[in-house]
């Protein structure tokens, strides 16, 4: 029976970054004793609550089981606080769908090769692609002067060229991934600017 004196966890959410998802919540403050937490989940396809490998745990977070790491599944979660024999009411998060709700980080730049008129970029997506994934890269680049005029180009491959540049000139660029999924387009975070000088011909 829920205890009216033990508050339920607040700010319950499934947070996801690059398709790695975790259930988290704000710790419940109590004057004495240490609060433990129990979390359950269910999916849109099987609406029965299941244990989430987080029964009476002390920390205010719980990794989603491997079986739930499906990008298109609808996941709902609930968590309650427990203090001795007392338990709070359940606090709910959801519905969560990773392909719609994850935050995509910036692509990683592996290598930059400079010629007199171009920069050749080798990049890696911020997540491990699954078969059939459709995404492209947005590249913003500009001459490193007082001017802030940025140009944009898009590329589908992980090796691409920024061309028509001036020789022996410092250029900066920033990258972003655009993922096309069943739930629409996810736009990732932009990478920190990186600057490289073109070669002398």
UniProtKB/TrEMBL annotation:
GO molecular function terms listed in the Swiss-Prot or TrEMBL record: cytokine receptor activity
InterPro entries: FN3_dom, FN3_sf, Ig-like_fold, Interferon/interleukin_rcp_dom, Type-II_Cytokine-TF_Rcpt
Sequence ranges assigned to domain Fibronectin type-III in this UniProt record: 103-201
SUPFAM superfamilies associated with the record: Fibronectin type III
Gene Ontology CC annotations of this record: plasma membrane
Name this polypeptide is given: INAR1 protein
Chain's gene name: Ifnar1_0
């Amino acid at each position: 029976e829920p205890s009216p004196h033990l508050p339920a966890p607040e700010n319950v959410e499934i947070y996801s970054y690059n398709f790695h998802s975790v259930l988290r919540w704000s710790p419940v403050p109590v004057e004495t004793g240490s609060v433990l937490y129990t979390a359950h989940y269910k999916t849109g396809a099987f609406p029965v609550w299941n244990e989430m490998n987080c029964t009476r745990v002390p920390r205010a977070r719980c990794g989603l089981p491997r079986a739930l790491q499906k990008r298109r599944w609808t996941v709902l979660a609930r968590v309650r606080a427990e203090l001795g024999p007392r338990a709070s009411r359940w606090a709910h998060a959801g519905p969560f769908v990773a392909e719609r709700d994850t935050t995509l980080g910036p692509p990683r730049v592996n290598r930059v090769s400079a010629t007199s008129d171009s920069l050749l970029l080798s990049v890696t997506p911020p997540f491990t692609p699954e078969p059939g994934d459709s995404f492209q890269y947005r590249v913003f680049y500009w001459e490193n002067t007082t001017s802030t005029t940025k140009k944009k180009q898009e590329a589908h491959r992980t090796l691409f060229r920024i061309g028509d540049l001036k020789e022996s000139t410092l250029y900066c660029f920033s990258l972003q991934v655009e993922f096309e999924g069943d739930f629409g387009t996810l736009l990732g975070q932009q990478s920190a600017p990186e600057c490289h000088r073109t070669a002398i011909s």
